[in-house]
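Appendix B.2, paired examples.
Example (i):
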Amino acid sequence: MNNRKTEGKTRFLLIFLAFSSAFLLASSVHDYHVSVTQMQYNPAVKAFEVSIRIFTDDLEKGLTLENNNKRIVIRNDDKNDPLVEKYILKSFLITDSSKKPLAIKYIGKEQEEDATWVYLEIPFHSSLSGYKLQNSTLMEVFDDQVNMTNVKLASEKKTFLFKKGQTVHAL
C-alpha cells in the first residue's frame, strides 16, 4: 500500500514538474541568457556562413541600451536591420594571425517565436591557424550571458563557450 502512495506522489510530482517546465518555457521571461552560433565553411563561396540564434527580448534589451534607451522592438517587418548589424558586428569579430579583423557581411535577421536569427557571411581562404574569434554579444547587458559557438571547417568541428572574462578564443 505504501508503495502505491509513493508511486502516486512520484507520478503527481513528475506531472506537476512537466507542466511547470512547459509553462516556464512558454513564457517570454527566462532565467538564462544564451545565444547559439553556427559557423559553417562553404567551399563553393569560400566563406563561413554564420547563423546566430538570440532570445529576442535579450536582443531588444541590448539594442535599446545601445540606442540611448530608445525602445527597440524586433519583428520581421521592422526597419531595425542597420541597428542589429551595427550591434552584432561590434561584438562578433574574427581576426587573422596579425590581429587584422576580417570583413563580415551582414545578411539579415529573421524573428521567430521567442528567438531572432541573425545571418552573416565571412569570406575565408585559408586554415584557422592563428585566427581568433570574439563573441561578446550581450555581455554588457547580462553578467551571466553565454555565447556557444560551433565552428565547422571541412571535417573539423569545434565548439567554444564565450562568457564574461573569456570573450575571445583561438580557432
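Example (ii):
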Amino acid sequence: MTDYFGSCLCGTAKFQITGEFESFYLCHCKHCQKDTGSAHAANLFSVSAQLTWLSGADAVTSFTLPGTRHSKSFCQWCGSALPNTQAKGLLVVPAGCLDTQVSMAPVAHLFTASKADWDEGLHQLPSYKCLPE
C-alpha cells in the first residue's frame, strides 16, 4: 500500500492518502476550466484509498455546482484545490496538490468537445526551467 502526502499552497491544509489511485484523467469540461483557470483539470481518482487530514481540515471548503455532479474542495485561505469526497465512495485528488510523486500518468482526456481553442500544439512551444528574463 502506498502513502501520498499533499498540501495547499499556504500550507494550512495537509493530508495523507493511503492506497492506490485507479485512474488519472485530464478533464477539459467547461466546469474544470473555470475551476482551474486553465485548459483542463488533472485529477486522480480512487474508490479504495483513504484520505486523512493531518492539519487544517477546518480550512477546507467544498462547493458543488447546483444541478450537476461537479464538486470541488479548496483551502478557504489560499484557494488551492484539495481532495474531494463529495461523491459517495469516490476520492478525487487534484494532482497538483500532491507533494509526493505519482508514478501513474494520465490515462485519458475527458470532455474534449469542450477543449479550449488555444489548447493545441502546446508541446511545440519553447520551454524554460524558470520565468524567462
